[in-house]
Amino acid sequence: MNMIALIIQLISGAAGGNMAGALLKNFSFGPIGNSIAGVVGGGLGGQLLGMLTSRGAFSVMSAAGAAFNLPSMLSSVAAGGVGGGIVTAVVGLIRNRLAKSI
């Protein structure tokens, strides 16, 4: 996997986790917790999307390595953001359920 694509997915995952925490106040862990859950989700989301596509892992650079491949970069941002938001929401839901049962 291209390291630039992974970095983009991790950063957008952190942003997606913070957006999910801001929208779903009951599931929020605070900025640092949302960022950590988002980074994990961004990495997982990017990997899953890479496995589901026929081209494998997304590449931000073209085959020649000289120019940006904008659709691949945008899909890395989307996969990381969505993955980060989903993981933050799911972990927040689990935390709330465990807190209510104790």
Beta-strand percentage range: under 5%
Instruction: Characterize the quaternary organization of these chains.
Output: single chain
- The secondary structure category is mainly alpha
- How many angstroms separate the termini? 42 Å
Number of strands: 0
Low-confidence stretches: none
Share in helix = over 70%
Largest sheet: none
Strand-and-helix sequence, N→C?
HHH
How many individual helices? Answer: 3
**Rg, alpha carbons:** 15 Å
Average pLDDT figure:
85
Instruction: Tell me, briefly, the overall form.
Output: elongated
Short recap of the structure:
By secondary structure, the chain is mainly α. It contains 3 helices and no strands. The protein is elongated.
Descriptive labels:
102 residues; mainly alpha
SSE blueprint and pairings:
Elements: H1 3-23, H2 30-52, H3 70-101
How would you describe this protein?
The chain starts with a helix and ends with a helix. The chain contains three helices and no strands. The longest helix has 32 residues, at 70-101. It is mostly helical. It is 75% helix and 0% strand. The chain has helices at 3-23, 30-52, 70-101. The relative contact order is 0.25. The protein is elongated and about 50 Å long. α1 crosses α2.
